Amino acid sequence: MALAVTSTSAESAQQAIGYPTLFLLVLVGALLPVIPTGALVSSAAVVAFHQTAPFAMALVFVTASLAAFLGDAALYWLGRRGLGSRNGSRWLETIRSRAPEERLAQARDKLADHGVTVLVLSRLVPAGRIPVMLACLLAAWPLRRFARGNLPACLAWAATYQLIGVLGGSLFPEPWEGVVAAVALTVLIGAAPSLWRRVRGTRPA
Questions:
Q1: Contacts by 188-193 with C-beta closer than 8 Å and gap 24+?
Q2: Which run of H or E residues covers position 106?
Q3: Mean pLDDT by 10 residues, the chain (205 residues)
Q4: Dihedral-angle region of residue 88 (phi above 0 means left; psi in -120 to 50 means alpha; beta otherwise)
Q5: Where are the transmembrane segments (predicted)?
Q6: What 3-state class would DSSP assign to 30?
Q7: Helix axes 143-171, 37-49, angle to 10 degrees
Q8: Going by C-beta distance under 8 Å and a sequence separation of 6 or more, which residues neighbour residue 147?
């Protein structure tokens, strides 16, 4: 009985610290794309998978998707302000610096052909979010239109990486083992497109 109470108290403490931390890190990661937010969501999902607290998985999903949505909306708003400014802005330059010309051209073509669908899929493609966001900015999409397409994108993104975490958590009895597996899988998924482009580029003509 005492052990169960102690376990419940520990889980409550983890939740009180973990969810606000997850929200903050995903929010900052959306603004500054240097934080591996996918790995964070997968790791949080592993921990939630091994908890007995009700709605732990649902809270991870809501926290991650809401933080991603708000972070994207804030970055897009800052980018629009930069486009309207004569001297641009630091945030707009940050977006431009992470959108290679080739990827931006592809994003603009696909956005012109398929509209919001491309925006929804952009968060599921490694390194696809920023070029599509910049394409939306250059196409002068209002924030409201961007937000309508970005909401399902963030929901799908959170669900995908949470599923990766559940898979890692279900394969191993200890949470830390599942976290390692989930992080390794997210890193592999993120690196796969770059490795594929390198392989294609080194093939003889």
A1: 189/38, 189/126, 189/164, 190/36, 190/38, 190/126, 190/127, 191/126, 192/126, 193/125, 193/126, 193/127
A2: helix 101-114
A3: 42 63 93 85 87 82 96 92 70 81 88 87 86 91 93 94 84 67 67 55 48
A4: left
A5: 22-49, 56-78, 153-172, 178-196
A6: helix
A7: 50
A8: 69, 73, 76
Query: Which residues, at least 6 apart from 38, have a Cβ–Cβ distance to it below 8 Å?
Result: 157, 161, 164, 186, 189, 190
Alpha carbons 128 and 138: distance in angstroms, whole number: 16
Q: Which two tokens stand for residue 197?
A: 């482009």
Would you state the structure tokens that stand for residue 161, as one six-digit string? 């990486």
203 phi and psi angles, rounded to 5 deg: -70, 140
Q: Residue 187 and residue 126: Cα distance in Å, rounded?
A: 10
How far apart CA 140 and CA 113 sit, in angstroms, is 16
Location of structure tokens 């390692």: 180
Amino acid in position 53? A
The reported pLDDT for the residue numbered 6 is: 42
